[in-house]
Hints:
The chain has helices spanning about 40-55, 60-70, 80-85, 135-145, 180-190, 200, 210-220, 235-255; strands at about 5-10, 15-20, 25-30, 70-75, 150-160, 165, 195-200, 220-225. The chain is of the alpha/beta class.
Amino acid sequence: MCIRDRYYTEAGLDINAVPAGAGRVPEVLYYAGVHARELPPVEVQLRLATYLLAQYDRDPVVAELLDTRDLWIVPLVNPDGRQRVDAGDPMWRKNARDNGDGTFGVDLNRNYDNHWSLGNPHPAEEDYCGPGAESEPETQIMRNFMLAHDFALSVDMHGYAGMVLWPLGYNKAFSPQEALLGRIGRAVASRLAYKAGTIARTLYQISGDGTTWSLERKGTLAFTIELNDKGFSPPFAAVDRDWAEWRWPLLWMARVAGNPASAELVLPPDPTQPVEAATAA
Length: 281
């Protein structure tokens, strides 16, 4: 497993896409770090990549998964914004665009070309949707990456509301894929005691989000996961708990991606081999 696709932001920082698998369908995408201040999701994705690499030769469940499908992990979508967080602005959410009016940043999860015009047009606000649909290099990178693949299922990981969410975001209607999305989402949520439902009905209405774009543009069974942490940057021990909770559900979601209609209604017991600790390198 290696970094096979590398892209660059406006500030010249990397957005890396890490493949794991045999290059076969179905394809599954995991990504995180869309909002700069949400730190645990990035660590969970890094641990997932490390775990898959370490366990391929040790665990037949992991080996079977990687031999029969292609998994892609983008741990950090917003490195420019994360740089601001690491430099001492812990509540920074957006990217680092200079808006030209004394304000900075666009909310990347309001910037996709999916009902974008319903978004917040005020640059000083945290959920500013940008000067145009898909105006941001990070959005363009993820859009082009997803258009170049046929992901059967995707997971966009955030913090920290304790929810498993799926489209639609822009209104409270149900999508034609509601039955499949709900079958998978509720199976995971019931295991973890998370809330579950559509973005608009369970969290709040949003427009221009990547999850709804993925479903409506590509037909991907797309999920947004809100980890159940206490804040955006909780003590690092929270990452250990998040990883322990989500390791098997993330693998199971990839497992059922090829035939979602057959997904169990309740998340089955974890069949993987015990592992000491899969930590990010």
